[in-house]
Structure formats: C-alpha cells, structure tokens
C-alpha cells in the first residue's frame, strides 16, 4: 500500500510536491478508506484522482512513479557510463544541474518503509531506506555523495554489496540481486505492487488481459462478467497468444512465409524479451456477440477484435490490469483514465476499488482525468480529489488537494471547479485567431 510520494525537479515539477494517501478526519464515504493496525489512528485512501488543464503536469506525476519504478527495476543491469533517465525542470537554468529527488513511503508485509533517491543523468547522489519493524524508525542503509554508505544491520554483507554498486546504479537494486534479504522486501514492493499505466493504447495492456483470461477458469469468468456488466454486448471471446522469435520473423519475411504474413496482419502485436532474445507476440482475439434472427431466436456472431469500437478495446485493455491489481492488492497508477471511455464506465472501474467486497486486498488506484463529472463528492471524498496547476510566474507544477479549500460536503465540486474556485483550469484568451 502507498502512503505518500514526493517529487522534486522532475519535468515540469520544480519544487517538492507530495501526493498523500493518508486520509483526513473527514467522516464521509468510509468504504473509500483502508484501516491497518500498523497505521494506528491513521487510515489510507483507496484512490486519488488528479485533475487539471493540459500541460499542467498531471501526467508528470504518473511519469514520476514510472521513472522511479524503472530505475529500481533496471539499474542493476546498467553498465559503467550508462546514463540515467534524468529529466530536470528546464525553465530555470539553476535546476538543469540539480538532482531529481523522489521519496516514497509504503507498506510491505505490514511493515512501513521510507525509500528516497536523488540522481543526475550520470550518477546516484543520495539514497536511503528506512523501515519500522516494531513501529520505530530504523535504518537499513544510507548512501551520501554516491560512495559514502552507512549501515546499522548486517554491516559486513551490506558493505560487500555497496562495493559492487556502480555510481549510476541503485544500491537497492544491486543488493537485492545479490540476495540481500534486508532490501528485498522494499524491492519486491516496486516489482510486485506498484503498477503504472502510461500509454493506455499500448497492446501490452491487451496482452495482460489475454494472459489473465487464459490463466484459469475463475479469471476467465471474472473478465467475462466485467465485460458483461460494462454493457459492451460481449458474451464470450477467444484469445490466443503466439510468440515468434524476432529472428524467425526476419527469416520468414525473406522467404515470403505465409505464417509470418498471417502473424503480422493483426493490430495486436508487441515485442517482448526473454532470456533467449526478442519475441514478436501476436494476440489473436475474437469476440462473441448475440444477435436475433427472423424467428426471434438468438445466434452467436464472431467479430475480430479490430472490429470492436475504440472504447471497447480500451476497456478490454484496462480490465486485465484492473483485475490483477484487485487480486494482488496492487497500487495502480493510470494516466488519463477517461480516454475513450463513457463516464459510467469510468465510474464502474473506480467503484471496483471503492467497494470492499470487490477490493478485498486493499488495492489502491491513482489516476489523472479531464472528466470533470468525476469531481463528485458522492464518488470521492474531498481528500481524494487533487489538482495540478501551472505556476504562472515560473511555469512549474503545483499539486494540491481539494481539502485545502474546505468546500462544504453538499457543494457541487464540478461547477466550482469550472468556475475557477480551485484553480487548475486553463486560461483561454478572448482574442481571436483570425484578425
């Protein structure tokens, strides 16, 4: 579970901003809250929605989650000299050489962790990991000025791991790969719990749904039920995955192979890497609909997946990650959830996280949206609604909660937002394009 995430000097975010999922004292919508003994009196939010105008930095919050996870998952593979994915705030020259900073607070196996890192394109500057095994803060490791480490537990092994850590690699990643038990729990949270959805039209999302569909009968029933509840008209489907080594595809094209030609026909193609190299993954999906005949009976009609509407394809691509997150208790971070989806389908997906009977493992959802209909106090608590706005003086992103404005619980938040009461709306000049 996520407690909070802080970001500094990343893309449009200049000064530190913090997205917190710690609930306020608001008494509304108890189903939207998570109660854990480790938090004592505090409760966590099951979801957070981030709204704001174009170019205000909404997506950069999601990209920050994605950037941190990518760094944790990949930096142990970096060679000496590999540049880090460093995207500082560019509208202030002083910040072009300052490090990007991330700090994330989360719960893994009923233990609270605090992990932080700062880095440039060349190296990790600072890095630290704390945990609260008995409710009290304890240091696992601290790294300063790239090479200076401090340990309080398992000192001999951790010193050995630090000597194996390149300047451009995370100690968290390297030490875990070297079988350091003291860091593996934190690493596993990034690997197994944090899931980011950036490019929502990515065929990789469709692949996830197909894999879950074919995994077992129970998941198959859940996916079909979700598609039925969403009123897409789909009563059944068949989904097969074919994986072909990229080398074989190249050879097949040279020899005019019919099999390779068939594989390349579909839209649902992605590249995937395994231990043996790159694979071309082809997903053959067919949906089944019911249709009446002249006698009033029904018969089944098969459609190619490419014949379905963009909204249907979008929901199909999301339903896999959705079910996976609810099943595992993941933190799912999604950019522009509302794209190509009807408002009621957005609500349908959000409600799955808010309903304790559907979200039994305390999964959390964070998403960005332009759909102002979702800014509704019947759907979200005030502490769940967040805004991004562009600071007009410096061009940087501000991130803040609706709670800062203390609106009444009976207030129409959508109207208030569109009237500019909470900021985070675009300023459109009255000047005409053509003179």
At a glance:
This protein has 435 residues and is an alpha+beta fold. It has two domains: 1-198 and 335-435, Rossmann fold (3-Layer(aba) Sandwich); 202-328, no CATH class.
Give the proportion of residues in helices: 25-40%
Rg value: 24 Å
CATH fold category name of the largest domain: Rossmann fold
Average residue-wise pLDDT: 88
* Helix/strand structural class: alpha+beta
CATH class of the largest domain: Alpha Beta
Shape: globular
Proportion of beta-strand residues: 25-35%
- The CATH architecture of the largest domain can be given as 3-Layer(aba) Sandwich
Number of helices: 11
The counted number of beta strands is 19
Uncertain runs are none
Total number of distinct structural domains: 2
For the biggest sheet, the summary is: 7 strands, antiparallel
- End-to-end Cα distance: 55 Å
Strand arrangement, major sheet:
2-1-6-7-8-9-10
Order of helices and strands: EEEEEHEEEEEHHHEHHEHHEEEHEHEEEH
How would you describe this structure to a colleague?
The structure is a single chain. This protein is an alpha+beta fold and 435 residues long. The chain has two domains: 1-198 and 335-435, Rossmann fold, CATH 3.40.50; 202-328, no CATH class. It contains eleven helices and 19 strands. The chain has helices spanning 58-74, 155-163, 171-177, 181-193, 203-215, 217-229, 246-254, 258-263, 310-328, 343-354, 413-418; strands spanning 2-8, 17-20, 33-35, 43-45, 47-51, 100-108, 111-119, 124-131, 138-144, 148-150, 194-197, 234-245, 269-274, 277-292, 298-304, 331-334, 364-369, 385-390, 397-401. It has a seven-stranded antiparallel beta sheet. A hairpin with a 2-residue loop joins β13 and β14 (277-292). α3 crosses α4, α5 (203-215) packs across α9 (310-328) and α6 (217-229) packs across α9 (310-328). The longest helix has 19 residues, at 310-328. The N and C termini lie far apart (55 Å).
């Amino acid at each position: 579970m996520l407690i909070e995430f802080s970001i500094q000097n990343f893309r449009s975010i200049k000064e530190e901003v913090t997205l917190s999922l710690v609930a306020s004292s608001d008494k509304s919508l108890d189903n939207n809250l998570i109660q854990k003994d480790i938090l004592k009196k505090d409760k966590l939010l099951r979801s957070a929605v981030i709204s704001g105008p174009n170019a205000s930095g909404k997506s950069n919050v999601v990209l920050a989650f994605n950037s941190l996870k990518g760094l944790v998952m990949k930096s142990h593979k970096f060679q000496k000299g590999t540049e880090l994915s460093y995207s500082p705030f560019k509208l202030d020259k002083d910040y072009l050489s300052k490090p990007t900073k991330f700090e994330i607070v989360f719960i893994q196996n009923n233990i609270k962790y605090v992990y932080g890192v700062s880095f440039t394109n060349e190296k990790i500057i600072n890095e630290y990991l704390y945990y609260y095994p008995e409710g009290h803060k304890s240091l696992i490791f601290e790294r300063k000025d790239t090479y200076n480490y401090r340990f309080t537990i398992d000192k001999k092994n951790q010193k050995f791991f630090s000597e194996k850590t390149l300047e451009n690699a995370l100690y968290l990643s390297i030490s875990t790969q070297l079988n350091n038990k003291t860091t593996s729990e934190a690493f596993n949270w990034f690997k197994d719990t944090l899931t980011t959805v950036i490019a929502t039209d990515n065929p990789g999302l469709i692949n996830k749904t197909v894999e879950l569909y074919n995994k077992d009968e129970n998941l198959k029933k859940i996916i079909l039920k979700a598609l039925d509840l969403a009123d897409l008209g789909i009563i059944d489907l068949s989904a097969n995955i074919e994986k072909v080594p990229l080398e074989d595809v190249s050879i097949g094209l040279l020899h005019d192979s019919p099999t390779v030609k068939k594989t390349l026909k579909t839209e649902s193609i992605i590249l995937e890497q395994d231990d043996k190299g790159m694979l071309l993954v082809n997903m053959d999906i067919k949906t089944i609909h019911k249709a009446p005949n002249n006698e009033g009976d029904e018969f089944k009609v098969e459609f190619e997946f490419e014949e379905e509407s963009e909204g249907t394809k979008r929901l199909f691509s999301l339903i896999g990650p959705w079910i996976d997150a609810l099943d595992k208790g993941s933190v799912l971070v999604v950019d522009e959830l509302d794209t190509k989806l009807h408002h009621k389908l957005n609500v349908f997906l959000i409600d799955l996280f808010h309903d304790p009977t559907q979200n039994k493992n305390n999964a959390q959802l964070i998403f960005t949206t332009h759909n102002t209909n979702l800014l509704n106090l019947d759907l979200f608590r005030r502490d769940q609604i967040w805004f991004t706005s562009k600071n007009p003086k410096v061009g940087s992103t501000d991130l803040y909660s609706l709670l800062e404005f203390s609106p009444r619980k009976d207030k129409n938040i959508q109207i208030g937002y569109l009237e500019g009461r909470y900021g985070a709306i675009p300023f459109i000049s009255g000047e005409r394009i053509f003179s």
